[in-house]
Amino acid sequence: QVQLVESGGGLVQAGSSLRLSCAASGRAFSRYAMGWFRQGPGKEREFVAVISFGGANTNYVDSVKGRFTISRDNAKSTVYLQMNSLKVEDTAVYYCAAASSFQTSRRGYDYWGQGTQVTVSS
Asked: Per residue in 60-87, pLDDT tens?
């Protein structure tokens, strides 16, 4: 079992930056691929970014490429999402999740955090 807790969300203006954090409870953190997903009001939850077990490989949804960066610190059992040049359409609840393999499908993730709200105003 893995417990995930997100933090770092907030209300910001378009063009600004936020850094989200996700802390995991267990020592097996490095054995999971870690992903970020988001869900806006009335929308489906969508894939945002994923990072492999050791952090060497990453993947992003096209809409955030060049603006968002996912990273991890296995010694701290924490994954991050650095979000720059934020847009109004980035407004959503952001969730971190853990998977046994590197993938983008939400169905492949076994553990989920409670989510943190990101609101971007114009």
From this structure: 999 999 999 999 999 999 999 999 999 9
pLDDT for 89-111, tens place per residue? 999 999 999 999 999 999 999 99
Q: Identify which of 47, 50, 41 has the alpha carbon closest to the alpha carbon of residue 88.
A: 41
Residue 56: Cβ within 10 Å count: 7
For the chain, give the number of residues.
122
- Residue 25's nearest CA partner among 98, 82, 115 is 98
Please give the Cα distance from 82 to 103 (Å, whole number).
Answer: 20
Among 11, 39, 24, which Cα is nearest to 110's?
24
